[in-house]
Amino acid sequence: MEKAKTEKDFGTLPIKEKMANWDPLNDDCWLKFVDFKPGGHPEEQSYYFWKSLRELFQHNAMNWIAPKLVENPHYTPAYCWLSNFLLKKQQSKIVQQLPHAIHFLKHISVAPVYDMEFAFVVDDDYENVSTACKVVYNKIKEYKDRNKYPMNICLGMRFMGASDSLLCPAVVGKQSPNEKVKTLYIEILTMPGTPDWKEFCEEIAMEWCKIGGKKGVKPLIHWAKEVEPVPNLREYMWENNRENMEKFLGHLSGKVDMTKKLFFNDFLTHMFTDPRQLTDHVHSSS
After folding, report:
1. In what order do the strands lie in the sheet with 183-190?
2. 220-221 and 114-121 beta bridge pairing
3. In which element (H, E) is residue 139 found?
4. What whole-number distance in Å separates Cα of residue 161 and Cα of residue 174?
5. Using CA atoms, how far apart are residues 114 and 207, in angstroms rounded to an integer?
6. Cα distance between residue 73 and residue 55, in whole Å
7. Half-sphere exposure of 47 (CA within 13 A, CB side)
8. Residue 20 CB: number of other CB atoms within 10 A?
9. Which of 78, 98, 117, 186 supports an S-S bond with 222, CB 3.0-4.6 Å?
10. Please, which residues have CB within 8 angstroms of residue 84's CB and are 6 or more apart in sequence?
């Protein structure tokens, strides 16, 4: 299939062709598709043995490279080019059980990373997805022009449905139980200790938080990822997910002694304190 030559050409393509033709800023993009198909013969156990061994080697290699890249960030473009080159050698079609298809990487603990992730309710025309990606592309270019390389792994995206879990970031776009909603999880990753990462993340987070999309829903954080760089995080989360956070705390009321911080740490205690209550307390004290 022929690549779209310009951004204008790309914008006129159907969604499926967009994904097949996507070549943002002429960079490499690796796509993993999961299709549900009955029948077929899943891969044998020997396949997963060799796959696990290969991934163990890859993550050990990444762990060995990490401190060298942190000390010499100007090698980042060459490293990313090599990583994409090797990744493209792994293209194939296989039949797997669903858990294997979703959790497709092992041994990630061998090579720890910094990782900030948000979830967006996807516009029907994918415009807010495109905007979120361009924020990162443009910010990378801006830093590159200053000879800085704060991001040295990848930008990752996962498309999925909505959720009924009150604190899940995929819950906000679902207005009714049967409504079909597409959610995008988008994350940026880098190796621990990479210079300028915190500043880079703060700037990305500030731009992502402005993207409302055509459905008027702001993105939310992935709770399990790096969230410290998000400015005024507690206020932002309560402003954009108040109803669900109040429901969640309501379910805990009378069942959990909040003073003992059961199921909580200092971060969650901070996050689950309603900023309005703090304001009301200040006003009543004054």
Report:
1. 154-160, 183-190, 114-121, 220-221
2. antiparallel
3. helix 127-144
4. 10
5. 19
6. 24
7. 10
8. 14
9. 117
10. 28, 30
SS3 266: helix
**Residue 152: exposed, middle, or buried by beta-carbon count in 10 A (0-12, 13-18, 19+)?**
buried
Contacts 24+ apart (CB under 8 A), 165-168: 166/244, 166/245, 166/247, 166/248, 166/251, 167/223, 167/244, 167/245, 167/248
pLDDT tens for 36-70 read 777 778 888 898 899 899 899 989 999 999 999 99
More confidently predicted of 257 and 71: 71
Check: CB of residue 152 under 8 Å from CB of residue 144. no
Closest Cα to residue 185, out of 219, 226, 212? 219
Q: Which residues contact 106 (CB under 8 A, 6 or more apart)?
A: 51, 52, 55, 56
Token duo for residue 115:
């990782």
Q: Which amino acid is at 100?
A: H
Residue of 62, 72, 74, 75 whose CA lies nearest to 191 = 62
Q: Is 169 exposed, middle or buried (0-12, 13-18, 19+ CB in 10 A)?
A: buried
**Distances from the Cα of 217 to the Cαs of 3, 36, 209, 248, in angstroms?**
32, 29, 10, 20
pLDDT band at 1 (very low <50, low <70, confident <90, very high): very low
